Amino acid sequence: MKSGFITILGRPNVGKSTLLNAIAGQKIAIVSSKPQTTRNAIKAIITKGDSQLIFTDTPGIHKPKNKLGEKMNETIKDSQDGVDVILFLIDANDKAITPANQKIVERVKGIKAKRILVINKVDEVKKEHILELIKLYSDECDFEAIIPISALKNDGIKHLIDEIIKIIPESPWYYDEDEFTDQTERQIVEETIREKCLRLLDEEVPHGIAVEVISMKKRPRKKLYDIDATIYCERKSHKGIIIGKDGVTLKRIGERSRADIEKMLDTKVNLKLWVKVKEGWRDDANKLKEFYK
User: Fold this and answer.
1) Tell me: the pLDDT tens digits for 162-181?
2) For residue 159, what pLDDT is reported?
3) At what angle do helices 248-265 and 236-243 cross, to 10 degrees?
4) φ and ψ of 27, to 5 deg
5) CA-CA distance, 286 to 281, in Å (whole number)?
6) CATH number of 2-167: 3.40.50.300, 3.90.550.10, 3.10.20.310, 1.10.260.40?
């Protein structure tokens, strides 16, 4: 038997969550076009043959602007401890090693783990450009493998998994064979609602949002969940934007969230959403503990 812990590192918006979902073969992490979508370390557990792979998606490495950003960077650091493999994900559209990626290269060099460079979005560039990136990064750091992929199109994912299996150690499994994530249903519901906020709201509003499930109960003898959740924002003006004229925006958030939650729980859902203001919560250590326990 073999098992290994694999952490995915990269800058914001490079496709880490899309990669995690492609590896898992199902939706584990929320995805949006906005940077800093991922706030927590999210695990996907893949059991294949006699091998178990525990992948961790991390927030994008960035310069924090508030205590939430600092906590996200701490999450990244914690996810590097004791891992067997680091997947360093870069964007195939990069023209060179960006300053942000150069810092990640230096960080990766200091981690005692096997290293794989993963070049994402290769469907968007010419093969010659990919070869140039391979040479650039090979000159900077030693990698066990360099693998071009398209996470969105599920291209190269099987090859990536096979390469990881080759280098993980012999070890007992840490999870049961049928487990696929360490997230609770409540956490998945919260993240699903936040994803819809990210997709339906513009500018700064989504980044100041946190979601908390207040109540989640299954009705006896009925295939139905009653879920009450609160969307927190930082300003009164943001509350109006989230609700929208005549409640239209909040209704859309609820409808789209409900569809995904019903698919995840395989049951009907009665979802009620509330919007409350908690000013400056991203810089409040106590409030961060409430939202990210």
Assistant:
1) 999 999 999 999 989 888 88
2) 96
3) 70
4) -80, 115
5) 8
6) 3.40.50.300
Task: For the sheet with 210-218, list strands across it.
Answer: 210-218, 224-233, 268-277
The residues, any chain, with a CB within 8 Å of residue 95's CB and separated by 6 or more, are none
> How many angstroms separate the CA atoms of 116 and 64, rounded?
26
Residue with tokens 């960077």: 73
Query: Does the pTM exceed 0.85?
Result: no
Q: Which residues of the chain have pLDDT under 50?
A: 62
Residue indicated by tokens 């090693």: 97
Q: What is the pLDDT of residue 212?
A: 93
**Which pLDDT score, from 0 to 100, does residue 58 have?**
74
Determine the Cα–Cα distance for residues 98 and 102; give it in Å rounded to an integer. Answer: 6
Look up the CATH architecture of domain 185-291. 2-Layer Sandwich (3.30)
